[in-house]
């Protein structure tokens, strides 16, 4: 197992810290302003298998990390908490139903969308990361549910989101980097 994977697993287990000394519970307790303004947490909440251009020293995940998440319900539960927190930030929520998982707009979607659903918004990159990371960590159903919601938003706000962003989301949602 790589040292990066070990760091991610410790962070998700609540025994390790990110590069700023924060535990995962500290990050998940950020208010919406902090989630918007702080730019070095998303790489820890939703790690990828390729280096970040913004944080080149952020840990990378590999197949061993994916296997560890698949084997440990506590890690998956923490990943679900991270996903739910980011959905709340975007004014979205996860619905678990008989038909599976669905991401829908929350009652306060409009208020949240004002902060991120704008042209060339950095949150579009974060959403790409979330989609891809969910795949890498064995949560393709959650990635698919988020993608379906984003696809509906794209149909409504094509000029705001843009074809390029939507293409990135589509690749990430299918598990491609």
TrEMBL record:
Domain Opioid growth factor receptor (OGFr) conserved per the UniProt entry, residue ranges: 31-146
Entry's Gene Ontology cellular component terms: membrane
Molecular function GO labels: opioid growth factor receptor activity
Lineage: superkingdom: Bacteria
InterPro entries: OGF_rcpt, OGFr
Record's keyword terms, sorted: Plasmid, Receptor
Listed name of the protein: Opioid growth factor receptor (OGFr) conserved region
